[in-house]
Amino acid sequence: MSKLKLGLPKGSLQESTFELFKRAGMKIYVGSRSYFPICDDDELEIMLVRSQEMARYVQDGLFDAGLTGYDWILETEAKVREVCELRYAKTGFRPVRWVVAVPKDSPIRSVKDLKGKMVATELVTVVKKYLAAKGVKATVEFSWGATEAKAGSLVDAIVELTETGSSLAANNLRIVDEVISSTTRFIANAKSWKDDWKRQKIENIAILLQGALAAEGMVGLKMNLKEQDLEQIMKILPALKTPTVSRLTIPGWIAIEVIIEERAVKKIIPQLKRSGAEGIIEYPLNKLIY
Fold it and tell me: Cβ neighbours of residue 226 under 8 Å, at least 6 residues apart?
């Protein structure tokens, strides 16, 4: 049997990645100390590695494909095939940001003020290019961890990853500028991409993962109504596309089906009921393929 070697991120993205694959139809199981998950798709051979290392491993062919952040693709300067963007993170669906941060009482107000200063970050290559593009000469050192604690004591500024900025604020830090915005990317090895079977397998996974993300926050609605009430019902429904309409065996009655945002349902269903809709059914979506 042909196998696709797939690298998945270990750490903060692990659980949200497993949940995404589950909604895409691929169940993954792993022990607390294992780096080799079991998947119900026999064509996948999975290993967990840190996102920071993923792009290089995919580039070197140790994995046929993998999931990692756009930030780490830039940082490692890996030559990989980007299959698709997967907009999800450990706590939500917004991009994560690498930002320049300083203590709230720091005199540093702009990137230009970093001239001659010391900056700590895990994203050294990207930050050096960022400063060079701004025409700022500063010393950039690699941070092995606890980066937020170093600002103002060991270094003048840090470049740190944030989703909401709440952790930085809790540590009395102020954001000066954004270096880059990053989302998760599905990447492939160049040689593997040229293999017909592997490419199709990678593309199939991409379609399913994108479908699972597209379905997030969406639900389906089915209902029956008199044909004469259709125009009024159509004014209520914020349809993703034109609703599917089919005739019932009862003369003058039709059924419609539509996909809408889940947050809108609580307002729409009572309106639909008052406008003549009956037998209203709401159902969850696992995947939404455009």
Answer: 252, 253, 254, 276
pLDDT at residue 18 in the model: 94
Counting Cβ atoms within 10 Å, is residue 249 exposed (0-12), middle (13-18) or buried (19+)?
A: exposed
Q: Write the CATH number for 233.
A: 3.30.70.120
H/E segment holding residue 120: strand 118-121
φ/ψ bin of 129: left (φ > 0), alpha (ψ from -120 to 50), beta (otherwise):
alpha
The amino acid occupying position 223 is M
- Whether residues 77 and 10 share a domain: the answer is yes
- Low-confidence stretches of the chain (pLDDT < 50) are none
Residues near 29 by beta carbon (within 8 Å), at least 6 away in sequence: 37, 38, 39
Please count the structural domains in the chain: 3
Domain assignment of residue 54, given as a range:
4-92+184-214
Q: What is the pLDDT of residue 58?
A: 98
Q: Are 45 and 63 in contact (CB under 8 A)?
A: no
Last residue of a domain, one of 136, 163, 182: 182
- Look at residues 16, 32, 154 and name the one whose alpha carbon lies nearest to residue 92: 16
108 plus 50 within the same structural domain:
no
CA triplet 283, 85, 204: central angle to 5 degrees? Answer: 65
Residues facing residue 186 across a β-bridge: 67, 84
Whether 76 and 49 share a structural domain: yes
> Is the pTM for the entire model greater than 0.90?
no
